[in-house]
Each structure stands twice: as C-alpha cells, then as structure tokens.
C-alpha cells in the first residue's frame, strides 16, 4: 500500500507545472521602439514648398509622412532632404525656403520635434521622446559654386550634401551624366569639387555619394578623410540601375567605415519594375503627355497617374522581401555595420507592399527578425550605423 502511495505521489509531482520562468520571446515592436530609428532621406520639404502641405497636420492619404505618423512608426531621427531640380537658377534660395518650412514646424511643436546638429543633440532628443530633425542637401548645385553657401547651409543644420543630383553642378559628374554621355571628356570631381569635399570634412558634414557617377565616387574615396554615406541607394548586383552601388563601391564604403542607406523606391529594389512601369506609361501616354505639355513636372505627372489608376499601380508594387534582399546582400558582402535605411518617402511615387507610409517602419524590423537577424544587428541597421558615421564626421 505504501509503495502504491509513493508511486502516486511521484506521478503527481511530475505533473506539477514548473515554477521556473521561461525567457520571454522579444516581440519585434519591443526591438523597434527601443532602438534609435534613423531615416536619412525624406522629401516632405519639397511637397511643403511645391504644394503647400503643412506636415504637422494629419496628411494621411495625401503624403507618406507627417509629424504624428513619424512617431507612430517609431522614427527617432529624420534627415530631411532639401531639394530642387538641378536646372533651376535660384537653388540656394529654394534650399533656404525649404529649411524655413521645417523650422516653422519645429517652432510650433517643441514637445514633438527639435532641430539637432550633432550626435549629442540626437541622444538628448531621443531621451526626451522627441524627433531629432536634421537637413541633408540633395544636390551640389544648391551651393551655387560658393563654399560660403555650403557653410551657410551647414550652419542651418545641413549634415550631409549629396554631391550631385541627376542634373549635376559644374564641379562633379552625376550617374546620369556618365551613363547617358559615356564620351564625356571630363568625369569626376574638378579641383573645386575636391575643395568641396575637403571643406565638408573640415565642417563635419557627411559626403553623400547617392546620385554621383562612378568617377566622382572614386575621386571622393581618394579625397575624403572622413566616412561617407550613400543616403538613398541600393544594390547594383540585384537591380542594374545607375543609381545603385556596384560591389566594388560597397566594399570601398565599408573600407572607408561609411554606410549605405537602402532606398525603398521600387525601381531600385525590384529588377522587374522598370518593364512594368514602361508598360504603364505607354498605356497612359496620351494623358501623361497632355499633363507634361500643360506644365506639370514629370514627377508630379507620375504621381497623378499612379493615384488615378490605383489598382494598376498597386499591382506594380514589389514585395517587402525585395527591400530586405538589398539589406541582406550588403550585410553578406561587407558586414552588418555598413547598412541602414534611406527610404525616399515622399520623393517616390510608389513604395514596396506593406510599407505604405512612415507608420510602417516596424514591418522592416519584423522582416529582419524573420530573416534571422539578432537584436544587436537589427539595432545597427535601424540607426546606430548612421549615428556612428555622423559622430565620426563631427
């Protein structure tokens, strides 16, 4: 009887729930909202000046971005693109006008967003649960060939200069220049272009090589004494766009201790998108040509057509996995320390599926977890890599 009772006790003891606590699985939102999330390229200032949008209002359905939606998406640091087309004659004035639009938002919303000029400012803003705002000037034409204007933009908070846009300044050749005119007699940086890079290094302003031609890129690598960035570029080996970076360039940026911020634009991450886009434009050619003849800018014409023919545009959007492939490619080629996010939100007409606007940044964190990335490495991709480069330039 005692033996039977002992057996029952042993069985019951084995069925008793364990009091030991199992480690709690970390949810992707925990990682995302505890990381410092940095986006190096957003074009909302262009829309603020061109269309009069006020981005401390709710712009859901009108733009990819607004102040409250940045917070919803867990964004901590936004570098705002200061952009005008390279063909304009008053680029410096436009740059200041766009900067004014951000300054006005900051002045109205001191509890939500603050201008930052250095690494310490950013950490302070994050601690206070505010968005840290900086400027990135997209296109060397905006300094109008004057180093004093470069310094003036720096003093207003510009912490990178994209050396060229498609229409380049006289002192550097763009990717558009070098690919559309392969017989161009002079490529790369002129002596003044090299002075621009040297001046940026001295100021503490990151040199951005997105949009530049191959020769300009290699000239920068030779001249710079500080780590550089590609503020919104992706991988040429996956999508052979002139805007993307070849393996040799990715390796050179890693050796320079710089960082490549991957662009979300479908045309830079999905090699089938170009053909789809051409078919779409051909289908709506009469309407598109009419809009262009009326004086509408090419970018806004595309935007109009995509919004009018929503179902067709939706079918062209690549899966999120295409963006993750570009991040993963860079990591496998040179390591996780050299990649980040440069969305181009509000500067692109279409986005990858699931990345509808700035509220959806956490989806990237979720996808990286599913890809097998550790929390430490995800934090690097989300922002700490860029912060390292920013600090190294100070």
Global Rg: 24 Å
From the helix content, strand content and strand pairing, which structural class follows? Answer: alpha/beta
The shape, in one word, is globular
Tell me which oligomeric state these chains represent: single chain
**Beta strand count:** 9
Q: What's the architecture of the largest domain in CATH terms?
A: Alpha-Beta Barrel
Query: How would you characterize the largest beta sheet?
Result: 6 strands, parallel
- Our count of helices gives 19
CATH top level of the largest domain is: Alpha Beta
- How many domains make up the coordinates? 2
Strand and helix order = HHEHHEHEHEHEHHEHEHEHHHHHHEHH
Describe the protein in words.
The protein is of the alpha/beta class and 394 residues long. It has two domains: 27-272 and 319-393, Metal-dependent hydrolases (TIM Barrel, Alpha-Beta Barrel); 276-317, no CATH class. The chain is built from 19 helices and nine strands. The strands form two sheets. Strands 1, 2, 3, 4, 5 and 6 form a six-stranded parallel beta sheet that branches. A three-stranded parallel beta sheet has the order 7-8-9. Helix 7 (147-155) links the parallel strand 4 and strand 5.
In short:
This protein is of the alpha/beta class and 394 residues long.
Descriptive key words:
2 domains; disordered N terminus; alpha/beta; 394 residues; 9 strands; TIM Barrel; six-stranded parallel beta sheet; three-stranded parallel beta sheet
